[in-house]
Amino acid sequence: MKVLIAAVVFCVLSAAGFSYGPHEGLDCLGCHDPHYAKAPKLFKVNNEVYPNPRTGEAINGISALCLGCHNLSQFGGANIRPIFLHMTHPVNVKPNPKIAKVPEQLLRDGELQCVSCHDPHPSNPFWKYLRVDTKKGTQVGKFCAVCHPAKADFKFYGLAGQLDIKVFSSMNEAVGAKAFSLTDPQLTIENPTPNYIKAFGPIRNDLAPAYTFVPFEPWIYNPDPKNLPPDLRKLIEKPKKKKKRGNEKKKGAPGP
Ligand code: HEC
Ligand code: HEC
Ligand code: HEC
Ligand code: HEC
Questions:
Q1: For 76-102, what is the mean pLDDT?
Q2: At what angle do helices 230-237 and 2-15 cross, to 10 degrees?
Q3: What's the whole-model pTM score?
């Protein structure tokens, strides 16, 4: 019975579009700082040390922000799921049109960056914060086809072609966060804002306290309702009006 209730709650939860990813736990302040920002868009972390093996230069732009967390601390990151550029898909490069046909909106100053492939905002419901719904990573080819359409079998994904793929964006508050068609004039991926942020000298990448317990929350690895933090669980259980659930304190094992 308990299993059944959990299953029902979980179905309701997923059907309602609730999906909690790890960036929720950063609670905005993990990435942005309204007063002590180090980089544009009020970003509070920045990787100034890790060179790009493709260009030999320091990584720049939005990708330096991601790598302020997603690299080892000795390489300027915060040891969170480190991304090593020497074994990563190229970033910080202007695309060779024979290798990639990148939709203009996905580039930053003409270059491919982490945000060309990911929209890291917590509102992004897709697997690994990718911009395309890959059905939890079972249709990754659909995502790659946004920029490498000549390589993909569109029939296999039930798509007419590159322009048929929908791309997620959270950057247009006028219409809200959703997956847009590549030709939709409301698809906004970048709002260039004047950059006035000047950090005083070297400020340590200081992460909001909220982030520190995020990687160890069992609900990140196992989206079973019983693993949700009690306050979130209360939210989804309310309509069910089930009080006796027992055994809820059990801690899930930390993930890999
Ligand atoms: C994982 C890091 C991360 C988290 C967490 C995060 N943001 Fe962002 N935010 C970004 C990045 C990266 C950009 C710039 C994106 C770009 O230019 O493509 C950005 C840009 C923005 C912008 C500027 C948009 C624009 O058009 O210039 C606003 C406003 C914003 N975020 C608000 C928020 C709020 C509110 C939250 C919490 C609900 C949040 N962010 C959480 C990474 C994050
Ligand atoms: C303030 C630190 C911080 C910044 C900045 C940050 N992230 Fe994250 N990110 C995290 C944490 C924490 C996790 C969860 C790690 C874990 O569970 O082990 C995470 C996880 C992820 C994941 C895996 C999601 C999943 O479902 O498995 C992706 C993809 C990701 N981040 C992309 C990005 C990108 C792209 C940027 C830059 C636009 C970025 N992050 C910036 C802290 C950060
Ligand atoms: C060409 C598209 C592309 C670019 C550019 C890209 N990523 Fe990813 N990223 C992916 C895909 C696809 C996955 C899921 C497959 C995987 O986990 O390897 C992923 C997964 C991740 C994860 C989760 C890894 C895990 O352990 O689950 C993180 C963190 C991440 N990316 C961060 C970044 C950062 C930081 C950058 C910029 C330096 C970046 N990505 C640039 C496509 C991209
Ligand atoms: C947002 C656009 C974009 C997406 C999505 C994308 N790529 Fe790329 N890809 C590029 C660009 C840009 C380059 C670099 C072209 C250059 O070297 O000038 C590239 C290069 C490559 C290369 C050649 C790398 C090398 O070192 O020569 C491979 C292989 C590749 N991509 C595979 C993939 C795969 C697999 C996926 C899906 C998981 C993917 N790409 C998703 C834009 C993209």
A1: 91
A2: 90
A3: 0.85
